[in-house]
Amino acid sequence: MSVIVLVENNGGTIKPKGFEAVQYAAQLAQKMGTTATAVVLGTIAETEMQALGQYGAKRVLHIADERLNNLHARAYTRALVNAAEKENASVVVTLYDLTGRVVAPRVATQLKAGIIAGALSLPDLDKGFVIKKSVFSGKAFGYVNIISNNKVIMLAANTLQVKKGEGAAAVEKLDVAFEAKDFAIVVKEVNKVTGEIPLADAELVVSGGRGLKGPENWGVIEDLARELGAATACSRPVSDADWRPHHEHVGQTGGTIRPNLYIAAGISGAIQHLAGVSGSKTIVVINTDPEAPFFKAANYGVVGDAMQVLPRLTEAVKKFKE
Ligand code: FAD
């Protein structure tokens, strides 16, 4: 009985959020009296995989087939199921991101496992296998007991404080007999739909709402985002009005994000907006109205005009970087 964790290979490097998944799996394995093995797919250097030992992985199973460089739901599922069988794993951990959402439910079906989407804690093993998750669009927490023998956990980002330690994981090749149908969907081209930094993976996000008055004013959001190396996001009315593309819309009916920093300018903080961003580690709110509800959810608040505050923040970031 062991724990395996899918760690995403982002064009030859480990996706940073993968470190948290490895640490989570390692801590869970320790609680269960076993070890965690990372599973890495596609073309990647051995040193990248060995470094997962610094986050608690004892071993890495590398399935090197280059067709796995792009996400293929069936192939990824077969790879993880094979790895789980090889390791006699009863728990499979993935992130609660695009890949996790596509792959984890399929793996759970094949392993006849119970699954939790968006885990916010390690399991409480004294009570069974009880994991915290947010419910009703972030308005409450639920505690879910997975009672099946096999379990699949999709971990919400920023659940743990990631700490880098010492050690190198032992890397082992795993050959998997894929079938042609595993790659039936052919990826011909990958187009980025957001700016330079994809919103779903962003550690830093600068977001604008109706308070910015119109698309012609979005330069202040983009300038700050560029200086910070952040992605841009927006509230729903902004994308409904076509000021910004729909994939930038966050909230109950848009994307759910959990960045380290979420800067919200000219956004009132309606419950439907908070549903998509309240898991952010640090929230900074800029609003002219001191009574705006968003201030209650903020770690830092600036009462002021976004058109003046944002350029000053951008200048401050520039100076800081000099
Ligand atoms: P407003 O509510 O108009 O707020 C603008 C804010 O800007 C105000 O607080 C104002 O004080 C401030 N402001 C004005 N001028 C300035 C300035 N110069 N500088 C700084 N601040 C300024 N919304 C989402 O965002 N995401 C969702 O997924 C979503 N899903 C929904 C689902 C349903 C079923 C429903 C009913 C609603 C949903 N909404 C969603 C809409 C949500 O209820 C709010 O209407 C919306 O979030 C408000 O957007 P806003 O804060 O940009 O605009």
UniProtKB/TrEMBL annotation:
Co-factor remark: Binds 1 FAD per dimer.
Keywords carried by this UniProt record: Electron transport, FAD, Flavoprotein, Transport
Keyword Metal-binding appears in the UniProt entry: no
One record GO biological process: fatty acid beta-oxidation using acyl-CoA dehydrogenase
Domain Electron transfer flavoprotein alpha/beta-subunit N-terminal intervals: 3-189
Pfam families with a match to the protein in the record: ETF, ETF_alpha
GO MF entries: electron transfer activity; flavin adenine dinucleotide binding
InterPro entries from the UniProt entry: DHS-like_NAD/FAD-binding_dom (IPR029035), ETF_a/b_N (IPR014730), ETF_a/FixB (IPR001308), ETF_asu_C (IPR014731), Rossmann-like_a/b/a_fold (IPR014729)
Binding site for FAD: R210, S235, R236, G266, I267, S268, G269, A270, I271, Q272, H273, N287
Cofactor: FAD
Family statement drawn from the similarity comment of this UniProt entry: Belongs to the ETF alpha-subunit/FixB family.
Name of the featured protein: Electron transfer flavoprotein alpha subunit apoprotein
Organism from which the protein derives: Mucilaginibacter xinganensis
